[in-house]
Amino acid sequence: MKLIDGNKTAAELKEQIKAEVALMDRKPFLVAVLVGNDGASETYVGHKEKACREVGFRSEVLRFADDITQDELLAEIKRLNDSPAVDGFIVQLPLPKHISEQSVIEAIDPKKDVDGFHPENVGRMILGLPAYISATPYGIITLLKAYNIETAGKSCAVVGRSNIVGRPMANLLSSKDFDCTVTICHSRTHNLKEICASSDIIIAALGRAEFVTADMVKEGAVVIDVGITRVESDKTKSGWKLLGDVKFDEVAPKCSYITPVPGGVGPMTIVSLMYNTLLAAKGEIYK
Amino acid sequence: MKLIDGNKTAAELKEQIKAEVALMDRKPFLVAVLVGNDGASETYVGHKEKACREVGFRSEVLRFADDITQDELLAEIKRLNDSPAVDGFIVQLPLPKHISEQSVIEAIDPKKDVDGFHPENVGRMILGLPAYISATPYGIITLLKAYNIETAGKSCAVVGRSNIVGRPMANLLSSKDFDCTVTICHSRTHNLKEICASSDIIIAALGRAEFVTADMVKEGAVVIDVGITRVESDKTKSGWKLLGDVKFDEVAPKCSYITPVPGGVGPMTIVSLMYNTLLAAKGEIYK
After folding, report:
1. How many Cβ atoms are within 10 Å of A219's Cβ, its own excluded?
2. From CA B113, how far away is CA A123, in angstroms rounded?
3. Which of A165, A149, A176, A160 is nearest to A255 (CA)?
4. pLDDT for B215-229, tens place per residue?
5. What CA–CA distance (Å, rounded) separates B48 from B133?
6. Per DSSP, what are the bridge partners of residue A58?
7. Which of B44, B15, B22 has the alpha carbon at shortest distance from B32?
8. Which residue ranges form the domains of chain A, and what is each CATH number?
9. Does the CA dihedral A146-A148-A153-A154 come out positive or negative?
């Protein structure tokens, strides 16, 4: 069994980006839009700012009170779309309830949509065109490549069909770039256990702690665990711990490769955002 | 075994559209752009014009010589994008080799892209947002609904991963609207025969005549045949006949439902284009 070390791969990718940025006259510029005072959002944006500093990007956080109107926010987005200085920007979700997240996502110029959430980027990815691939799917395919995991002709169960993980993973892995035979499983799937147990690769992205058990995994499988559930724990100082969608202790011994939680897919997401921002600055997606 | 009659369902949908158009003050207006003198393209565009007349749409064919430059064609597309009179338009493919089809598709305003080929419409469909769904996938889901075919919890093999059929079908059928457990199969799939033979529904869209044989289909399966291959025949006056991707004679007796070729999916495509044009005229996709 080999552990897929997301921290290591993320650090390597970060170093590559940093080396490339060092040679650029004009540094990539990422802006994060933060509405309100959500604690988790503050933390995420803080991590993103730190990552920008580490790779040599310029970054800025635009903060707005949680009573900003949708029209005011859309006007700010338009300013960012039109600003030649800004290579890419993200609007940190969730937004206050009086603002339509979908309207905000669709207002972002696809050319600056480094989160890859705009329908045009999703469509481009699906069609096999150059696209900003969103952070989690991009992180997963980068890990598969970093560990030289064979995918062509392999069977793959994608468990979960969310727009941000399951669905893009099913489309990416079934494309000619990966050539997996993908089965998309979800809450209405009858024989989920059998499908997983016969699959060479399992992408667990349903968001239920320790759902995938040893009897659902075949000997030698590759298991990518995208779940993060915070549960109480009396064994940690903080009083809580993170669990993945995979019952790691019993599944890991059967795997050829497995991602741990934490330290697997998670660390890849922020560096994936940095990578998209680099692509934006270089104009490599929309020429 | 029940035959899925595409001609009948198409005629019914056409009558519904016609009835709705009859009540509209302003008739939907569809424009077709035709470059060069490709015989098949002429025929398709002719069928589309005829369908427009039948449902009460206005229609127009803009013809250009095959030496039109890409820039000139893009300028025509811009004119159509900007014309308030035009609800939707299509550019008949294929285009001459000196013109990038992808550039042309991306130049069409997604709001008028009634073919549903623009990445933004593909992305919207994938994300479950209102979208123009392209003609063949829309035709197939309309047939499934017209025949009240149960899809929830069913296993479905989509054979073929093309951008125009296989991939959209896999995404649509695995969505909450249909709740199938979909396996996307393609040229690199190892155990295609077993996957098909264990599936409740088979979408055959690989483009190889009579590829799906009786041993690949389980008793009671639903089989949708998207293939159309023209082969020589000494039994027809024309000297040729159309074959689907399914070996109909031996597969049909095992099926609960099956589409014939011709007369199954084919007749649905033009009426699907009419339906998208109606949606465009009503402003129902992009509000």
Report:
1. 8
2. 14
3. A149
4. 999 999 999 999 999
5. 17
6. A29
7. B44
8. 25-109 (3.40.50.10860), 135-266 (3.40.50.720)
9. negative
Q: Is the peptide bond before A96 cis (omega within 30 degrees of 0)?
A: no
The pLDDT confidence band at residue A170, using thresholds 50, 70 and 90, is very high
Q: How big is chain B by its Cα radius of gyration, in Å? A: 19
E strand spans, B179-287: 181-185, 201-204, 222-225, 229-232, 240-243, 257-258
Residue B51 to residues A237, B17, B20, B62, Cα–Cα distance (Å): 71, 11, 15, 17
CA atoms of B213 and A202, how far apart (whole Å): 30
User: Given an 8 Å threshold on Cβ–Cβ distance, is B153 in contact with A190?
Assistant: yes
Identify whether A48 is a catalytic site residue.
yes
What pLDDT is recorded for position A250? Answer: 98
User: What string of H, E and C letters represents the secondary structure of chain A?
Assistant: CEECCHHHHHHHHHHHHHHHHHCCCCCCEEEEEEECCCHHHHHHHHHHHHHHHHHCCEEEEEEECCCCCHHHHHHHHHHHHHCCCCCEEEECCCCCCCCCHHHHHHHCCHHHCCCCCCHHHHHHHHCCCCCCCCHHHHHHHHHHHHCCCCCCCCEEEEECCCCCCHHHHHHHHCCCCCCCEEEEECCCCCCHHHHHHCCCEEEECCCCCCCECHHHCCCCCEEEECCCEEEECCCCCCCEEEECCECHHHHHHHCCEECCCCCCCHHHHHHHHHHHHHHHHHCCCCC
Q: What is the pLDDT of residue A279?
A: 98
Please tell me the distance in Å from A131's CA to the nearest CA on chain B.
10
Q: How many CB atoms lie within 10 A of CB A5?
A: 18
Q: Is the pTM of this model over 0.80?
A: yes
Each residue's pLDDT tens digit, B16-32: 999 999 999 999 999 99
Q: Report the residue count for chain A.
A: 287
Q: Can you tell me the distance from the alpha carbon of A88 to that of A101, in angstroms, rounded to the nearest whole number?
A: 18
Residue B266 CA to residue B65 CA, distance in Å, equals 29
Please report, to the nearest 10 degrees, the dihedral formed by the alpha carbons of residues A231, A235, A236, A237 taken in order. 130
Q: At a CB cut-off of 8 Å and minimum separation 6, what does A150 contact?
A: none
Q: Which of A14, A92, A113, A154 is catalytic?
A: A92
pLDDT at A187 over 90: yes
The percentage of residues in chain B with a pLDDT greater than 90, rounded to a whole number, is 100
Tell if the CB–CB gap between A171 and B175 is shorter than 8 Å: no
Nearest-angstrom CA–CA distance, B142 and B10: 9
Type of residue found at A27:
K
Write out chain A residues lying below 8 Å of B118, CB-based: 123
Report the mean per-residue pLDDT for chain A.
97
Q: How many helices (H) and strands (E) does chain B have?
A: 10, 11
Contacts of B186 in chain A (CB under 8 A): 174, 179, 181
Q: Which two tokens stand for residue B279?
A: 């949606």
CB nearest B122 (choices: A123, A152, A191)? A123
Check if B249 is active-site. no
Chain A nearest-CA distance from B182, in A, is 6
Kindly state the tokens that stand for A111.
């050319």
Residue A132 · residue A276 · CB < 8 Å:
yes
- Complex ipTM: 0.96
The answer to whether the CB of A220 falls within 8 A of the CB of A252 is no
